[in-house]
Each structure stands twice: as structure tokens, then as C-alpha cells.
Prior knowledge:
CATH class: Mainly Alpha
Strand order of the largest sheet: 1-3-2
Structural class: mainly alpha
Number of domains: 1
Number of helices: 4
Strand content: 5-15%
Amino acid sequence: MLETSNNSELPSIPNKRYFTIGEVSDLCDVKPHVLRYWEQEFPDLKPVKRRGNRRYYQRHDVMLIRQIRDLLYHQGYTIGGARLQLSGDTAREDSAQTQQVVKQLRQELEDVLKILKA
């Protein structure tokens, strides 16, 4: 997930529910226009929009932005590569969950088979 060692120069995230685009810009050391652009490029980055189309980011959005920043600025990924890397994290989690479900289903089927044989 998020490599905290790569973001050691960034300030800690305050314990708030919502952050304005200016606050996120300061917390992640990224200009607001870059944040707006990343919203278009990364489907998981969806801040809440309220009156006047104002953006309000949540803690998970800030952490995702820091991860995107690390991928692009420190690890040298392109936008497309970073998008694939982030979706790959999700795919690995989905794969692990699928394997767990299959294992559980197989065990249940073996139990049913034992009952039917008896």
C-alpha cells in the first residue's frame, strides 16, 4: 500500500474528516491543478463535491494522492503505469479473496460429499 518511508518529507495528516483542495495541496506537496488532473486520470480518486463544485477530500483520498505522488515523482512511473500499478494492488487483493472463497467452498463441498456417502 502506501510506503511511508518515501513520504517522510511530507507533513503528517491531521485527524480531520474532510480536507479542502488547498489543504491537500499542502499535505501532499502537489499543486491544486495537478490534483484536478489526477482526478481525471485515476478512477479511484473521487473527492466529495459540494456547493459550487468545491472538492472535499477524505483521509483515504489524501493517502491515495501520496501514493500516486510517490509512484510518479519518486519511482518514475508514467500516469498509465501508475494507474496499472494501483489497479494491480486491487487485483491482488481480489485474487486473495477469491482464493479464500474457493477454498471455503471446496471444503463445504467435501463435507456434503461425506454426508452423501454415509
